[in-house]
Give the backbone structure.
Amino acid sequence: MKRLSHWVFTVLSLITLSSCEEEMSNIVTDETAKDVTGNWKVLKLTRNGEDLSKRLDLNDFQISFKADGTYSLSEQLPFVVNDAGNYTLSDPQFPFSLILQPEGETTEVPVKFQFPVVKGKRQLSLTFSLGCSSNTYQFDFERQN
């Protein structure tokens, strides 16, 4: 009798688990493509976690991304690129990097990409090193338009 009840319990458990699996596979998990178009102004700049925003005038530095896949920079700050060019995301729905290619250059520059919502506003965070790999810069931007 114990064997029979154990066997019945096992069969019922397998049926229950397999029915849950079917339901989970039917859930739609479409993620929209990330839209970075617009003008982005620097909110915060850190180097190795230290806030540099109070030491530098960041008011005029912006990066603009256009729907045609081009970007431009206004004002100069130490940044991973110095010239306008083309951009793409490593994956339109789940990007881990923003790939910049300055005009006239064949080299693509990948930049670590994050796209969080902070205090109800979308932000863009770009992280990279300039030459020395022990120095990591993070620019946090907020869309202006």
